[in-house]
Amino acid sequence: MPKRLKVAVTGAGLKNSPDGREGWAARAHLPALKKLADIYDVVAVCTTQQETAQNAARHFGVPHAFDNVEHMLEALPQIDVVCVSVRPVHHYKVVSAALRAGKHVYCEQPLGISTAEARAMTALAKQAGVRTVIGHQSHYEPATLHMAQLVREGYIGRPLSFNHTYFVGNYIVPRPSHRQWLFDAGMGGHPGYRSGHSLDRVMSVLGCDITAISADMAVQVPERIAVDTGGVIRSNQVDNMNYLLRMHTKAGEPIMGTMQTSFTAWYGSGNHFEVYGTEGMLMLATGSSPDWNKKTGEGDPSRGELKLYGARANLREYAANPTPPERLQNQYREIAIPKKHYYVDGMDRGRGAYLVAQTWHAFAQAINKGYECSPSFRDKLKIHRVWDAAEASVEKRAWVYVDYSGIS
């Protein structure tokens, strides 16, 4: 049986936020890792202040607390994996330190605030010979995994077109003042970085890269209320991203689609992804969100579990008994998800912490068996190249091809 992997989690401070929504490490990574105690041993937490690190260590029962990543790596050489859940502007520094120390790395997205940083970290990981994974936790949503499997197996025939939307209210609802960094363009780098999860889903489900993009991005809501100060949080960070996308299958066949990511949607519908092919369709849609305990440190709010729907066309039947196209609309059914896609038991499947646990489980398999985990740093570098093309498209007001040169 493989040994338990020793993990250090960075960015794990408790904020005691008035909306009960802690930082991602505290509300998702640490609960997930604690649930996987037979696979992982959380040996340290690290924040920028010793006091906050010690508070988090006490709350989650972690033996060591640090306020400096380099000191942590030097003091605990037995660490196997470093979880990087700090603000994107600090990803390069923390990830690079972990890689230079020969540690496997789970990094939240984006992979740094520029393609140059992403490229440098990808090269450093390859040089170190370690495993990497990016925090696109929705990659391991059971319904998404099964959708990708069905596309590969030919359930819809040859993919023709798709539409992906993500509507949430993160950038319009009143927020605590410590979230100010989310609204600072310099902290995220690429204007469209908040579209990363959606891009990963589109590319992983369809199994091919985006080849060209026509993009539009904007700041639609420049300010919102700061709930703890009564003041205003102002923003210059893009909150709405609209993409026209072109893709090609490995056989060179074209796929066309649209993707809209909006963070200014009151009571948003969450994820919705439709894929249509020559022989049928598949659709992901978010279910209802159950109640949530707002008490601080009790994990992340549930956003509802994704459901998978689909239908296959019977061409012989329709040829023998012609049917008006209008009668075929909405003629899909829910598809049961096989147990093999559920890696983790005993957690609310509608929470981000569950999906993070799914990702950590897959990462352990990759580390122990010696293969690349998906989405890896290399996969994320491709998304950075898509963002480069999106920015060029907005500037030129034209279609732009995505340049993947130099990515093996």
Q: What would you say this structure looks like, in words?
A:
With 408 residues, the protein is of the alpha/beta class. It is globular and about 75 Å long. Helix 4 (91-100) packs parallel to helix 5 (115-128) and helix 5 packs antiparallel against helix 11 (377-396). The longest helix is centred in the C-terminal third of the chain and has 20 residues, at 377-396. A hairpin with a 5-residue loop joins strand 11 (240-248) and strand 12 (254-262). The strands form three sheets. It has a nine-stranded mixed β-sheet with strand order 16-15-14-13-7-12-11-8-17. The protein has a six-stranded parallel β-sheet with strand order 3-2-1-4-5-6, sandwiched between helices. A two-stranded antiparallel sheet has the order 9-10. The protein has helices at 24-35, 50-60, 69-75, 91-100, 115-128, 142-152, 185-188, 196-206, 315-320, 352-369, 377-396, and strands at residues 5-10, 40-46, 64-66, 81-84, 104-107, 132-134, 159-167, 210-218, 223-225, 232-234, 240-248, 254-262, 270-277, 280-286, 306-312, 333-334, 400-401. The protein has eleven helices and 17 strands. The mean pLDDT is 94. The protein starts with a strand and ends in a 7-residue tail after the last strand.
